[in-house]
Design goal:
It is a single chain. Helix 4 runs antiparallel to helix 5. By secondary structure, the chain is an alpha+beta fold. The relative contact order is 0.10. The longest helix is centred in the middle third of the chain and has 23 residues. It has 2 domains: about 140 residues, Roll (PUA domain-like); about 120 residues, no CATH class. The chain has 7 helices and 10 strands.
């Protein structure tokens, strides 16, 4: 399939209805389109070559209808579909065949600027529509998929959702509980862990950012602990003090917010082992202090 500059050229060359998103071509095989410019934040899931593809519907809660209904059918039937992609400033091109290995529901923001529940279909690239050509890890994921929706909206409600706002202390408590539930429910399959982290680790990360008060949590930070980006956000990197691959846990008391300089020292510095020991003690102390404090003021000054 040749690249196409405009969306209309895809339909002109291969049939279809000229509406990008989730739609079949003339041969009836479902095709999904992903434009790197938007409107959805489709992305490769870190640590895998799998794709997190946002469902059909630009505003309001997404429903299992139209394109999402077609996706649900392909998931149930374990059928391959086409994935077309347009990099920023590039052309539309057929990139790969994919199969749907999971479906998640998460909080997103529609084109109207309002929070909404949206579907994210996890697409695993395969060489062809023929199952005998699919990687074993994809076959394993399909065998374990029961077709149910993984609802990630229960623990991670945006601040605007709900009748009454909660204090930072209460939100921290809820985020910690969400992160622990995720840890308890994880399997040992490497791909499942990576996918799960993509959808649910935001709870742990948000808790650590909240706890940091916008400052590097390393008490001996000699860099720029309060530096901001152009948008006013703190330049902080949330890090697992002990890497996940070496037994680290995806929970706030085992994670810390660091400025880029301290992150580099913790990762590549000659004294990184001693720094990790120190940072773990800091994280646990700050976690306990923040969880117990009655007011929502930031803890410490590190």
């Amino acid at each position: 399939m040749r690249p196409c500059v405009r969306a209309s050229e895809v339909a002109d060359a291969y049939g279809g209805n000229r509406v990008l998103g989730i739609t079949p071509l003339a041969d009836g095989i479902l095709t999904v389109y992903s434009d790197e410019k938007g409107p959805h934040a489709d992305t490769r899931i870190a640590g895998t070559n799998w794709i997190a593809y946002t469902g059909d519907g630009l505003s309001g809660d997404q429903q299992i209808r139209n394109g999402n209904r077609s996706m649900a059918r392909y998931q149930a039937e374990q059928r391959a579909l086409r994935y077309w992609h347009k990099p920023y400033g590039g052309q539309w091109s057929f990139e790969t065949w994919v199969v749907i290995v999971e479906c998640h529901s998460r909080w997103g923001r529609g084109e109207d600027g309002k929070n909404r529940r949206e579907y994210v279909w996890v697409l695993a690239p395969v060489a062809s529509p023929l199952r005998e050509n699919w990687p074993q890890e994809v076959i394993d994921a399909l065998n374990e998929d029961d077709g149910s929706m993984h609802d990630n909206t229960l623990d991670m409600a945006p601040r605007e959702v709900g009748e009454t706002p909660v204090s930072d202390r209460e939100r921290y408590r809820r985020l910690v509980a969400a992160a622990r539930r995720t840890r308890a429910g994880r399997t040992q399959r490497s791909r499942s862990v990576q996918v799960d982290r993509y959808f649910r680790s935001p709870a742990a990360r948000e808790a650590v950012i909240l706890r940091s008060g916008g400052r590097c949590e390393n008490s001996s930070c000699a860099g720029h602990p309060t530096e901001l980006t152009d948008t006013g956000a703190p330049i902080l990197e949330v890090d697992h003090i002990n890497d996940l691959g070496r037994g680290g846990e995806d929970v706030p008391e085992s994670m810390i917010a660091l400025c880029p300089n301290c992150h580099a020292l913790k990762t590549r510095g000659t004294n990184r082992q001693g720094l990790r020991t120190s940072l773990l003690a800091i994280a646990r102390t700050r976690h306990q202090a923040f969880a117990e404090q009655e007011q929502c003021s930031p803890v410490g000054s590190g």
